[in-house]
Amino acid sequence: MAAPVPIAEVKGTARENRTAAHSHIKGLGLTSDGRAVPSGAGGFIGQAAAREACGLVVDLVKAKKMSGRAVLLAGGPATGKTALALAVSQELGTKVPFCPIVGSEIYSAEVKKTEALMENFRRAIGLRVKETKEVYEGEVTELTPEEAENPLGGYGRTISHLLITLKSAKGTKKLRLDPSIYEAIQKERVRLGDVVYIEANTGAVKRVGRSDAYATEFDLEAEEYVPIPKGDVHKKKEIVQDVTLHDLDVANARPQGGQDIMSMMGQLMKPKKTEITEKLRLEINKVVSKYIDQGIADLVPGVLFIDEVHMLDLETFTFLNRALESSLSPLVILASNRGLTHIRGGESLPLAAHGIPPDLLARLLIVPTHPYQQVEISKIIGARAKTEGLNVDSAALDYVTELGVKVSLRYALQLLAPASVLAKVSGREGGKITLDDVKECEGLFLDAKTSAQNMGTANGFIA
Ligand SMILES: Nc1ncnc2c1ncn2[C@@H]1O[C@H](COP(=O)(O)OP(=O)(O)OP(=O)(O)O)[C@@H](O)[C@H]1O
Ligand SMILES: [Mg+2]
């Protein structure tokens, strides 16, 4: 018997979210007239002016008035720049693409750096495609594959066609389908009683959910129940799909389908980034703008967040300048915790603010973030402990806050997790973190400054 052919799951090209440190942030926490709610709303504490400025940016984006410009969040370490960028994207809506990268991510031996940046630009631009398609939709009441002798004379039997009956509110229809659709149906795990639709011209099958006639089967289920579709089984239906321009690039760059070995290899290997050419992108842009003109698709510009922007170099900055002016541009948010520094690749030039060339700097709306006061630090640590599910007693909280003021907020936040481990090990009731745990952790882990000082003095590693 032939080995089963692995069916490669089609994965979206979305990135994993790498911002677990900000899971307590749920938005900018502004009132309807754009004022910052002082404490805790949306998980954001303090930093009121920056939050209000970001709220204005969100309004500008919604009014489509940000083109050619970008935002720079400038401020010291752990003043909430990354958290702000995340909150802006949350305020723009749930289906809005958010693509966070770090400046140094674009350097790779395989791909040109401008190419890597372009790819991320296109990850951050969404397209909502509305298509009216001819579909068959209804609850599956019959699903019988019809078998036939294998025409090649082998032992196995093949499926010659598939009989499926769909029921809608207005009637039922029996369809005789091609065996290839049977595969699609198996992949979607369709069974009797499910509501599905089948696209008439492509044969694509989509499982909508389970018919609500079956809703009382069990009490507790992770199933989504949907009503029996209205109207006829065979009808025209508007289907909405969200994709990013990068998804379109990838989908069109790789040869798809086909049974030959090469195309199977192509699917098993990682998609090669270099296959997407400028020409292909231009073609896709043309099709996209045609769709937009025809009203089939809407552009959903998202957010491209470039952290540590001083890691970009002169070439990429010029590219960025141009890309901001294109009609297809997402909201670009840059962040930097550097003051005056050299522009990478331009060490002979004078120092530049935040390591950004002045011509780009002139296009930026600069939002400063400020260091926190003691009260705010204590609240942020409290909020963080709550989302992490940690139980901190008040003496310990005070001490961690003190460290936040004396050393840095990041160091203070960093100590929470190891302290909770110590608390659990000591078997205290409820794993409550006490002052001793925090002090022990403080002894175990150095903060950045102390560590650097140790190196600089006689007991440094390199003599
Ligand atoms: N105003 C705030 N309210 C709640 N949490 C905050 C606030 N500011 C910062 N935090 C939290 O503090 C931590 C550090 O903040 P963040 O990573 O955003 O700093 P940053 O400005 O990006 O620092 P860096 O320059 O080092 O990248 C994060 O866990 C963040 O969610
Ligand atoms: Mg950051």
UniProtKB/TrEMBL annotation:
InterPro entries from the UniProt entry: AAA+_ATPase (IPR003593), P-loop_NTPase (IPR027417), RuvB-like (IPR027238), RuvB-like_C (IPR041048), RuvBL1/2_DNA/RNA_bd_dom (IPR042487), TIP49_P-loop (IPR010339)
Superkingdom in the source lineage: Eukaryota
GO molecular function: ATP binding; DNA helicase activity; hydrolase activity
GO cellular component, one term: nucleus
Enzyme's top EC category: hydrolase
UniProt-listed GO biological process terms: chromatin organization; DNA repair
Family assignment from sequence similarity: Belongs to the RuvB family.
Protein name: RuvB-like helicase
